[in-house]
């Protein structure tokens, strides 16, 4: 990979990882359109470590509080009424589906699922899922938008299953999980906050698992250790700003804004594919 490719795609990763527009879809589209080749799922997964570091820093106090409560409750049954203890279990249980499906389907994810026709169609179709979630989601559940007190195991399981859809470029991890939260009656802020926490185990595991393959990928382009390090740093800085912006945005604005953008992008990609401007694979 060239340095300009690493810098541009890492910035794009940081900008789109937390917005409900699909970072993997954007990297798949623009790496092919602007640079003539798919950067590959392994590069995407490794650079995601930068954006995930942004989550760890942004939610550092929350993460420490949850971990302390979880370990205390693990060894002291009298502390298991603590909402943070239960929240720790919710993150663990919600992460199990994507861990299983991601491992079993890793070859499909790195190859067949990266067809640009699939990405374009999914961008459009799941935009209507966002719109439906906004329409039918009552957002009247008593789930605190900051502490997530009131969250239930059912919420974790449903949002964890929704997170699995993000393995297909074009779906969006945050869009799928936030939409699931809306269908469950949660507010956008509460759904977004749990979505970020739920992503931590999945993205860290995916990035570390894909690290060796990023240097000599079976599919996609290779990157040096320095390029991956710089790319992750760029994604971290931009990703941190994106988290702060999105949490403020969803308090007063719907996912419809992102749905409109996704539909336009999906139609644009279809046009580029139909005219032979970019290849599908």
Task: Output the keywords.
mainly alpha, 12 helices, globular
Proportion in helices: over 70%
What string gives the helices and strands in order?
A: HHHHHHHHHHHH
Percent in strands: under 5%
The beta-strand count equals 0
CA-based shape: globular
Enumerate the spans where pLDDT stays under 50 for 5 or more consecutive residues. Answer: none
Radius of gyration: 18 Å
Q: What distance lies between the first and last C-alpha atoms, to the nearest angstrom?
A: 18 Å
Biggest sheet record:
none
Q: Structural class from helices and strands? A: mainly alpha
Helix count, DSSP H or I runs of 4 or more residues? 12
Summed up:
This protein has 281 residues and is mostly helical.
Structure explained in plain terms:
There is one protein chain. The protein is an all-alpha fold and 281 residues long. It contains twelve helices and no strands. Helix 7 runs antiparallel to helix 12. The model has no long low-confidence stretch (mean pLDDT 89).
């Amino acid at each position: 990979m060239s340095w300009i490719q690493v810098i541009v795609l890492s910035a794009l990763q940081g900008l789109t990882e937390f917005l409900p527009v699909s970072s993997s879809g954007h990297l798949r589209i623009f790496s092919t359109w602007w640079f003539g080749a798919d950067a590959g799922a392994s590069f995407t997964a490794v650079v995601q470590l930068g954006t995930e570091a942004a989550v760890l820093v942004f939610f550092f106090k929350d993460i420490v509080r949850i971990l302390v409560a979880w370990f205390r409750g693990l060894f002291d049954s009298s502390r298991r009424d603590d909402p943070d203890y239960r929240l720790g279990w919710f993150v663990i249980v919600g992460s199990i589906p994507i861990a299983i499906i991601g491992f079993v389907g890793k070859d499909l994810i790195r190859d067949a699922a990266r067809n640009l026709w699939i990405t374009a169609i999914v961008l459009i179709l799941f935009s209507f899922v966002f719109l439906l979630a906004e329409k039918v989601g009552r957002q009247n559940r008593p789930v605190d938008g900051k502490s997530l007190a009131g969250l239930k195991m059912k919420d974790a399981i449903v949002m964890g299953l929704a997170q699995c859809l993000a393995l297909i470029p074009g779906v969006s991890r945050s869009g799928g999980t936030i939409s699931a939260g809306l269908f469950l009656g949660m507010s956008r802020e509460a759904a977004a906050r749990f979505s970020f926490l739920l992503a931590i185990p999945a993205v860290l595991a995916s990035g570390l698992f894909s690290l060796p393959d990023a240097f000599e990928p079976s599919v996609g382009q290779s990157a040096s250790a320095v390029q991956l390090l710089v790319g992750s740093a760029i994604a971290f800085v931009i990703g941190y700003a994106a988290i702060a912006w999105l949490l403020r945005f969803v308090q007063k604005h719907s996912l419809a804004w992102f749905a409109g953008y996704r539909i336009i992008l999906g139609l644009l990609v279809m046009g580029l594919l139909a005219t032979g401007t970019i290849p599908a694979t």
